[in-house]
Design goal:
Blueprint (H helix, E strand, L loop, with lengths): L3 E3 L3 E5 L3 E6 L7 H6 L1 E5 L3 E8 L4 E8 L5 H6 L11 E5 L3 H14 L20 E4 L3 E5 L3 E6 L6 H6 L2 E4 L5 E5 L7 E5 L20 E3 L7 H18 L23 H16 L5 H12 L3
Antiparallel strand pairs: 1-2, 2-3, 3-4, 5-6, 6-7, 8-9, 9-10, 10-11, 12-13, 13-14
Helix pairs in contact: 6-7
Length: about 300
């Protein structure tokens, strides 16, 4: 097509096989869209396109992604507010006829199996390395593994007992993200085999060493959702080539992430001592964790 359609805070540039969606920077542009910057979406990744009336003299052109095509939208799982939807273009109502034209052009370019889930990922997730602060710890992803480092002020005693965690993407089966804009938001790494089932017996996020919990000002959407999408993309890429787990192999191998710096180690030992004094760690647990920290010096 080679055309450009500019809306409020967003511009769509049409190509023969894809649309490049660019997000403007500015105080009125949602932070998630500013973080994404731009996204190239092949028409093969779309299930359809919708044109609906908007608010205050606008119309909304929205592309509908196919399940499985975009890890960002799969991780979001319908939890994004309208203003943060990267597939949504808001236009003045005077451009409705032009929007109808491009909607028809996109429909004509859709894959014949557009009504079915995509067989492979078609839209790139934000690239690592990535970090963000949750309420109970700092999450980091370097492209091959996810690391959680617990905060003394927020982490539960269950997490302090097992220590900081590192998970290789090959050990994961997925990611569950619950928006920080709702009650009890979290990011939880899925380690069980097979598809997710309703009511699966997983520990709550605040007790699970494979999860971080959000809170007021922590795990913000523009930080935690791109992180979840990047991890999900890496998990999917690793899954086909990864060796199948045998009954003798654990579903996940968790190790204490190394820390550096004598002052930091001393601070951690002091915090463990406070947990021990409070009765939250046994003598053996305190001695074991202290020895592990001293071994990092």
């Amino acid at each position: 097509m080679g055309d450009v359609l500019a809306g409020f805070h967003t511009v769509w540039e049409f190509d023969t096989d894809s649309v490049l969606i660019r997000f403007e920077r500015g105080i009125r542009t949602p932070k998630l869209l500013q973080t994404l910057g731009e996204r190239r979406v092949p028409y093969e990744a779309l299930a359809g396109v919708e044109l609906t009336p908007g608010k205050r003299g606008t119309v909304v052109l929205r592309a509908v992604p196919r399940p499985g095509a975009d890890p960002l939208m799969d991780a979001a799982d319908g939890q994004l507010k309208e203003g943060c939807d990267p597939y949504r273009l808001v236009l003045p109502v005077q451009r409705e006829t032009l929007a109808e034209y491009y909607a028809d052009e996109i429909r004509a370019a859709l894959d014949p199996r557009a009504d079915q889930p995509a067989e492979r990922q078609l839209v790139a997730a934000p690239a690592p390395p990535m970090t963000f602060k949750a309420y109970d710890g700092k999450a980091s992803f370097d492209g091959t593994s996810v690391t959680f480092r617990w905060f003394w002020t927020g982490a539960s005693s269950a997490k302090w007992k097992v220590g900081d965690q590192r998970f290789a993407v090959e050990e994961l089966s997925g990611v569950e993200w619950r928006s920080p804009e709702v009650y009890n938001g979290y990011l939880q790494l899925l380690r069980e085999d097979g598809p997710r089932t309703a009511g699966a017996a997983r520990p709550p996020a605040d007790q699970d060493p494979a999860a971080v919990v959000f809170g007021m000002g922590y795990g913000l959407v523009h930080e935690s959702l791109p992180f979840a999408a990047a991890v999900l993309e890496a998990v999917r890429a690793a899954s086909p080539a990864g060796p199948a787990l045998t009954p003798e192999q654990p579903a996940a191998r968790v190790t204490v992430a190394p820390r550096s710096g004598a002052a930091e180690i001393a601070d951690r030992i002091r915090q463990l001592g406070e947990l021990h004094t409070a009765g939250l760690l046994t003598d053996d647990e305190f001695s074991t964790k202290k020895a592990q920290l001293l071994a990092e010096l």
